[in-house]
Prior knowledge:
By secondary structure, chain A is an all-alpha fold. Chain A has 17 helices and no strands. Chain B is rod-shaped and about 80 Å long.
Amino acid sequence: MVEGDHDFGTVTDRISDYTLKKKTPFGWFIGFGISFLVMQLLMFAVTNLLARGIGVWGNNQPVGWAFDIINFVWWIGIGHAGTLISAILLLLNQKWRTSINRFAEAMTLFAVACAAMFPLLHTGRPWLAAYWLFPYPNTMGIWPQFRSPLIWDVFAVSTYASISLLFWYVGLIPDLATLRDRAKNKFFKFIYAILSWGWRGSARHWHRYEIAYLILAGISTPLVLSVHSIVSFDFSVSQVPGWHATIFPPYFVAGAIFAGFAMVLILCIPLRAWYNMKDFITQTHLIYMGKVMLATGLIVVYGYAMEAFFGWYSASEYEVFMIKNRIWTGPYWWSYWLLIICNGLSIQLLWFKRFRESAFWLFMISLVVSVGMWLERFVIIVTSLNRDFLPSSWAMYSPTYIDWSMFIGTIGFFFTLIFLFVRFLPVISIFEVRTLLPQANVHGHQQDFDESVLEVEYTYDKTDPGFTK
Amino acid sequence: MEKNIYGILAEFDTPTQLVDAARQVRDAGYTKTDAFSPFPLHEIDEALGIKRSILPYLVFCGAVTGLLTGIGLQVFVHYIDYPLNVGGRPYVSIPSFVPPAYELTILFAGFTAVFGMLFLNGLPRPYHPVFNVERFALATREKFFLIIEAEDPKFDYEETRSFMESLDPQEVFDVDE
């Protein structure tokens, strides 16, 4: 899993030098600058929204949920791959997760931060959200409605954000101690010392640390599955045709992992090239991620097939109408077919070794999949709502420029945070990469004996007069 | 004991040497010992005789507390404090109460795991005597260290130091208090 000739020292130096020593690459400034500028769109959109109210968005009746929920689900789905990599692959003992888990977890955190903005701002007055969202004993005696999936979502997402933050931070502690011990700059040494809590690598500490880390992985696994299931309950618990389907939880979870792996690839392919990390993020990593994308993508395609099947099999007039409206008779038919092309057809390339092994193609397919997963939420939300039960209330939905600025602004926000993370924190988990090296194994005495026997035989062969190459 | 020292620290190059040395230290009857490594070593637990932590039990208690908080909160809100008839559903709608209670279980368990671990480890502790040894900075990079603390009942400066030297370390250091 680690390529090249490395020992504990060189691994440590290579990864920590990205943060401490190496001159910041020019590309970093370009990337950060662009992301930071794009982030200003978010500023513009939010200011506009708060000053003028949510009428500046394109939401209407019957499409009361639009960009805010599309983008919320899109971002939160992207976050899921980070937890999958850090928790589920840890439990499954997949060693290849080690070089990518750190920034996948960072990606989770930043994606959840972007996601959380949308429902909060959809309230129009987020400063009042404390008693709308959380069971906070206020003077008006109002409580949230716990029978509503929307409040389940609040609990799921806030738990998810907290646990992801803890998981990420706990993983960082030993590496921050490494940075503390290696930093030359007094100021950064101090900051890393504070952040590492005085970690000194004691055996007793490692013992508890590993238990805590494993428990966190163990509880994050059901957590990550529950979060997107609960997000899907926002739809499937309602009665709206196109939303009220039992396939939703597994189909949403698979879609989340699918979108998340696409985002991990989008981030790690350039990172690996610019920072010359090919020793740690190897070809094998990319191929594995491509395979995970293919597998989860096929589950998602199965979900699309099942949605159509359920519509027909329900024998409900409204369900059948919704499916027809979504696929060919409705005004948004093009979004459905674009979705099928992006999510269904593009990933078929991953069956072929040629595409799986090429960083360029993986990157392109990931971009297409990200667009596709966004379209999926657009299709689910807009095509289900725009023609509801009463033809008199039908209406078209189109996002305003404020909707677009806010969405694009969050992408800028996300990449700004990613760039800052890459600059100031170790992007790869250093201590876990050390454990991947062959030197990290403790040899028992029996094994030492076997090895020396092997060595003797090998030397003997070489010195044998009859030995020819 | 003439010098005011915290303990005697030995440096090793490989994890195998560290584990072997730790076994010998334990066999020699020292109990106030510790090892430092740049990554977790499972073998060291057995070699130093580290007992399994009580952390998992704490986490279980945290999880149960979270579950009870979740159920208690929702029952309080919808049954005791402000009963509200929504579509004729029962006031205690258990199936609807599952997701928040489930999330709170995980939230409390996670917080207990992390802060329990830090608390049991005695962290944060920005200062520790071992940091006085300059080469100890390598413990977070590539080197392996073993310490016998002066508090150990068997500790005797001369004897312990020569014992440490007999373990074939790279170097032996006195750790100042």
